[in-house]
Design brief:
The complex is a heterodimer of chains A (412) and B (248). Chain A is of the alpha/beta class. Chain A contains 11 helices and 9 strands. Chain A has 3 domains: 229 residues, Alpha-lytic protease prodomain-like (Up-down Bundle), CATH 1.20.1510.10; 77 residues, Cation efflux protein, cytoplasmic domain (Alpha-Beta Plaits, 2-Layer Sandwich), CATH 3.30.70; 90 residues, Dinitrogenase iron-molybdenum cofactor biosynthesis domain (Nucleotidyltransferase, domain 5, 2-Layer Sandwich), CATH 3.30.420.130. In chain A, 55% of the residues lie in helices and 17% in strands. In chain A, the strands form 2 sheets. In chain A, strands 4, 5, 6, 7, 8 and 9 form a 6-stranded mixed beta sheet that branches. In chain A, strand 4 and strand 5 form a beta hairpin. Chain B starts with a strand and ends in an 8-residue tail after the last strand. Classes of the chains: A alpha/beta (412), B alpha/beta (248). At the A-B interface, helix 10 of A face helix 1, helix 3 and helix 6 of B.
Chain lengths: 412, 248
């Protein structure tokens, strides 16, 4: 029974319907009480809650759309639609913070009538509405404001928890918005208490500025995350650095040439270009290793899903050509110690430091011209001292190797 | 002390063998690096090239000293009975324990990770594991024991451990106990992988293993797991010589 109830409460749809119910109750109570005690603040907050109902219904629609499966037309699904909600709620919160900061400033300035009049002579400041309250309505106002604030804070935590668990950014954004409402309500409560007990309703206004700052911060965060996801901003420098590091820890990875990341809903998408010297047999396992470690990293952090695309390429082949002076003696070829001793020139194609093709040519009459025509970079001899190599052309540079057996050099 | 020898080849892969072996020598605190080269046996018997052979050996030692910065390098005509580091893919030295770096330049180039020791149902694995445990202890690396088993159709369990045959269970217990005696941090991974070599290499990749140790068996005539792993694994691999073929 309890498990079933928990499962029900963890559903994003149930969460949002509970939120709608909360706002209906709040709006009805606040609008009727606000009209009764002539409090534009409480009545205005009630109308704000009516707007919250519409917002909650919009979030419900967005969640429904976001949960639809991927199709050929929408290969990543429609999860990004949730970030339109983040963008919109972020923008609304920024405007709300501005409005709230302005009202708090107007409230503060009203305590200095001369300054108030001077500013109003050239600035279109909104009208200041002081709270109207008597002993008979105080308890009602107190209970409703406190109850509303507590409910907002609890419901916001609930929304954020369910949103994070189910990967619905719009639910998290709406939860943040509910928390901002709660902060404003707490402030209204302080104003009510300040007026009634200390006869200092001005307390509400400096605190209002602080709360406006908090709301603006939340609004900016939501707006920025929505903007970044919708415009496929990278998932962040720190994440990319960790992904590169994890790739380099996988055996067989030579380098990470390119990394592009972006976010779709709560899914991180990584597009990697990796260089490796290994062949196709081994690349399968390198891919498996990269996917395992990158997935492990991404899912342990901010993301619910991930999609990793890896393209493998070979490092720069550094193709060039070298040659060995070789001598045919005792029915076998060996690397010659001098040009006189050499009977043949072994032309070698080199890729990534390995000889991949050799071609044996009889020692030509015009060695310099032959080596230049074949674009040979180095001509190798087996000798401790290159002084012994008489008649060798200066270009390519002759070089000594520490062996005479072709096998040592990958030549057989 | 485990003697380390590098097979010298003047190629980019051969250079990696030498640096890999030199790193092992440093990590194990060995006295010297032995170097050998794949010399043509006909040259070894030919008097006409004996001076050249001597000179070649001197030059190889000089070259290895230059590459590795190690002062103590000794040329040996045939591989020693320790660990031979060779970058070749074919099993050139089947009678000695051969470490194939698989294009890695040092054992812990990418950070330290465990040594993966796959085992089957034969007690031969125990003697092979002893050699790897000694290496793991000296290198202060943890050990992962890996076994993959066929699904027993008579058992309904989804736990791979419950599909292991009795002999493999005995080997696993022996190895875990032995690893404990060596003071090693040990973990067992039991699976029902589709393919043995695929299971081994995948486990190595998941666990970020830095070395896979597999023993050769003279009983296997076709489809040797070690050779298959050598073709597929990007992780360095130490092939332990079959007991009856081991060089004395």
């Amino acid at each position: 029974m309890i498990t079933a109830l928990r499962k029900l409460l963890a559903s994003p749809f149930v969460t949002m319907w509970l939120v709608v119910l909360m706002y209906i109750v709040k709006a009805m109570i606040k609008i009727s009480l606000g009209g009764q005690i002539n409090s534009p603040m409480i009545a205005g907050d009630g109308y704000h809650n009516l707007a919250d109902i519409i917002e909650a219904l919009a979030v419900l629609a967005v969640i429904y759309l976001a949960r639809r499966p991927a199709t050929n037309d929408y290969p990543f699904g429609r999860k990004n639609i949730e970030f339109f909600t983040s963008l919109a709620i972020g923008l609304v919160l920024l405007l709300l913070a501005l409005d709230f900061a302005l009202k708090s400033l107007v409230g503060l300035i009203s305590y200095a009538p001369t300054l108030d009049q001077t500013l109003r002579s050239f600035l279109p400041l909104p009208e200041h509405h002081p709270l109207v309250m008597d002993d008979g309505t105080f308890v009602w106002v107190l209970c409703i404001t406190a109850g509303s604030a507590v409910l907002s804070m609890i419901v916001s935590r609930y929304q954020i928890a369910v949103g994070k668990a189910t990967g619905h950014a719009s639910l998290v954004a709406d939860g943040e918005e509910t928390a901002s409402d709660g902060r404003i309500e707490i402030l209204a409560l302080i104003g009510v208490l300040g007026e009634y007990f200390l006869n200092s309703p001005w307390l509400e206004y400096p605190l209002g500025l602080v709360v406006a700052g908090f709301i603006a911060h939340t609004g900016w965060g939501l707006f920025r995350s929505g903007y970044r996801v919708l415009l496929q901003h990278s998932i962040g420098e720190a994440h990319e650095k960790n992904i590169r590091q994890r790739c380099m820890n996988v055996c067989g990875v030579h380098s990470v040439e390119d990394l592009k990341t972006f976010q779709v809903g709560q899914m991180a998408v990584c597009m990697l270009v990796v260089t490796t010297k290994h062949t196709a047999d081994t690349v399968t396992y390198i891919k498996y290793g990269i996917e395992h470690h990158v997935r492990e990293y991404l899912l342990s952090g901010d993301f619910k899903e991930c999609e990793i695309h890896i393209k493998f390429q070979r490092p720069d082949q550094q193709r060039h050509r070298v040659a060995y002076a070789i001598a045919y003696k005792d029915k076998r070829f060996r690397i010659a110690g001098s040009l006189n001793e050499a009977t043949h020139i072994l032309v070698c194609d080199v890729e990534m430091g390995m000889i991949v093709r050799t071609r044996r040519e009889s020692k030509p009459e015009q060695l310099g011209a032959f080596l230049a025509r074949k674009r040979i970079l180095k001509l190798y001899f087996f000798t401790g001292s290159l002084d012994a190599i008489e008649g060798t052309p200066a270009n390519p540079i002759p070089e000594a190797v520490p062996g005479f057996q072709p096998r040592l050099f990958g030549l057989s | 002390m485990i003697p380390i020898a590098a097979v010298y080849r003047r190629t980019s892969k051969g250079g990696l063998s030498v640096t890999f072996a030199a790193d092992l020598v440093r990590r194990l605190g060995a006295e010297r690096l032995f170097v050998t080269s794949p010399i043509d046996p006909a040259d070894d018997r030919s008097a006409s090239v004996s001076d050249a052979l001597v000179r070649q050996r001197e030059l190889i030692v000089e070259d290895v000293r230059r590459i590795t910065g190690l002062a103590s390098v000794l040329f040996v005509p045939t591989p020693i009975s320790g660990i031979v580091v060779d970058h070749g893919q074919t099993a050139e030295y089947e009678d000695v324990d051969t470490l194939y770096p698989r294009l890695e330049s040092t054992l812990c180039e990418r950070g330290c990770g465990p040594i993966l020791i796959p085992f089957g149902d034969s007690l031969e694995a125990v003697s092979a594991a002893e050699r790897s445990f000694e290496l793991a202890r000296r290198l202060a690396l943890p050990v992962v024991l890996y076994h993959t088993t066929w699904v027993d159709p008579d058992r309904e369990s989804s736990k791979p451990e419950e599909h292991m045959c009795a002999e493999a269970v005995v080997v696993n217990d022996r190895l875990a106990k032995l690893a404990g005696e060596y003071g090693l941090q040990v973990k067992s991974v039991i699976e029902t992988a589709e393919d043995v070599v695929e299971g081994i290499v995948r486990c190595g990749m998941r666990e970020s293993a830095r070395l896979i140790v597999m023993s050769r068996s003279s009983k296997t005539t076709v489809g040797c797991y070690v050779d298959q792993a050598l073709r597929q694994s990007p992780i360095s691999l130490l092939a332990i010589a079959a007991l009856d073929r081991r060089r004395a």
